[in-house]
Amino acid sequence: MIYLLLSVLASSFIFVMFKLFKRFDINTMQAIVINYFIACLVGFFGFIKETDISLIPEKAWFPGTIFLGILFILVFNLAAITTQRSGLSVVSVATKMSVAIPVLFGIMYFNESSGTIKIIGIILALAAVYLTSIKSREGIPINKKNLIFPILVFLGSGIIDTSIKYLETSYVSKTDVALFSSSIFFIAGTIGTGILVVQGFMGTLKITGKNILGGIALGIPNFFSIYFLVMALRSEGFESSSIFTINNVAIVLVSTALGIALFKERLIPKNWIGIALAIISILLVANG
């Protein structure tokens, strides 16, 4: 349970960093690319002992890290487009409600339990995510022509979590967790660097110190968010469907609390209902 708590805290800190990016006008794409390399270095020098880098491509999980690295960059860019066209609330809902994909995968592929209490908890968790994320009384209006982007964010985010669970269970040994995580970040960073190089040739790239600092500050919690999530998935006592549900809902709760405490965000009645449902859903899923 401690790994799950640490993953929630790390992921919630990422939320704080993105809020600060907006406040200090930090280029998100540059910071994201730098963050991937920082996350890779944190894992490599902090948790990996005497590894022959040349042997990494021979690991059974290595093709999966290439797939995940591509998805990391792709989903990030889709999220950016969705934010620009439909707003942050839409991205938040699409990302967090994607938990339905790994939850269903865990129940169907790994034959995890699906008792009535647990199912009710999962449904309440999805409702909680929606109600906590919306920032207007009217809900979340989306132009039909832009609907494809949040759908792709939903699918991409869900596939990422599902792939991590599948690879962690099928191919990643306990001693390779940090190496697995670092490899994903390195590949994502390498692909992101290619995008920045293209921007450089187009004359639209301007790297600044604050973008680099933003990437460094983001990279540390980003590594731990993945590392601790994988460790939580490996722990006994909770199934992956429960871990993913509790993790996502808890991130929403902690992020909301941080938004109120640090950024003076105000909640509408629907948000408070969502918070109440989130707490109930965690209790039901944990005991279902």
Describe the structure.
The chain has 288 residues and is mostly helical. It has one domain (2-287). The protein is 77% helix and 0% strand. It is built from eleven helices and no strands. Helix 5 packs parallel to helix 7. The longest helix is centred in the C-terminal third of the chain and has 26 residues, at 209-234. It is globular, with a radius of gyration of 19 Å. The chain starts with a helix and ends with a helix. The model has no long low-confidence stretch (mean pLDDT 90).
State mean pLDDT (0 to 100 scale).
90
Q: Alpha-carbon distance between the termini?
A: 16 Å
Strand content: under 5%
Helix content: over 70%
Q: What's the total count of β strands?
A: 0
SS element count, helices:
11
Radius of gyration: 19 Å
Class by alpha and beta content:
mainly alpha
Low-confidence stretches: none
Largest beta-sheet characterization: none
Give helix and strand order, one letter per element, not per position.
HHHHHHHHHHH
The outline comes out as globular
Structural domains: how many: 1
In short:
This protein has 288 residues and is mainly alpha-helical. It has helices at residues 2-23, 28-47, 62-86, 88-97, 100-109, 116-133, 148-170, 177-201, 209-234, 240-263, 269-287. It is globular and about 50 Å long.
